[in-house]
Specification:
InterPro entries: DUF6505. By secondary structure, the protein is an alpha+beta fold. It has one domain. It is 29% helix and 21% strand. The protein is built from five helices and seven strands. A four-stranded antiparallel β-sheet has the order 1-5-6-7. A three-stranded antiparallel β-sheet has the order 2-3-4. Strand 3 and strand 4 (64-65) form a beta hairpin. Helix 3 (75-93) packs across helix 4 (98-114). The chain is globular, with a radius of gyration of 21 Å.
């Protein structure tokens, strides 16, 4: 069985508006729920609340992404993700050192890996909610329509030769049945 991990993906620019810091497309990702441990979730508002509700955490930028895509990874890439996350836990979260941070990073990456039991290029979305006694996470998959998309990509680009194509004109008033 191939090793798979989630990578951030940006299908439109909305992440740059809804999060205070958006992850860059193509970053390895984890859920990032640990950033909300001990937080007063009810007091979160705006972009922080959106990150809580629907954000995956990009490991490199510590920015948020609404969607991730299941991606094949090598053992070396996985090890590098664990190491980078451990470094981030020290630099951004106050972990006392890499030795203390590595087991936590390993656990986060292992959980992210467990979410990727889907074919490559499957999109994953996350929803978090505050419930007693803690936080509940639910995940959903967004599958491509095989008849509309190429099998190896999240979306397909169609090249159009506008010089040789006839221009199509539509008379909206006629379609609406009006003569004005």
């Amino acid at each position: 069985m191939a090793l798979k991990l989630p990578r951030t993906i940006r299908l439109d620019p909305s992440d740059t508006f809804v999060y205070s810091r958006a992850a860059e497309p193509g970053e390895w990702a984890v859920t990032g729920s640990f950033l909300f441990f001990g937080a007063d979730v009810e007091a979160l508002s705006g972009k922080e609340r959106q990150a809580f509700r629907a954000g995956f955490l990009g490991v490199d930028s510590f920015g948020w992404s609404t969607l991730v895509v299941v991606t094949e990874a090598s053992a070396e890439e996985r090890a590098a993700v664990v190491e980078k996350l451990a470094e981030q836990l020290v630099a951004r979260c106050g972990a006392p050192g890499l030795e203390a941070a590595r087991p936590a990073a390993e656990e986060e990456v292992a959980f992210a890996q467990s979410l990727c039991d889907h074919p490559p290029n499957t999109l994953l979305a996350l929803h978090r909610a505050s419930e007693e006694p803690g936080v509940r996470e639910t995940f959903r998959t967004l599958h491509r329509k095989v008849s509309r998309l190429d099998p190896a990509t999240a979306f397909r680009v169609i090249e159009i030769d506008e010089e040789n194509d006839p221009v199509e004109e539509v008379d909206i008033r006629a379609l609406a049945g009006r003569d004005t």
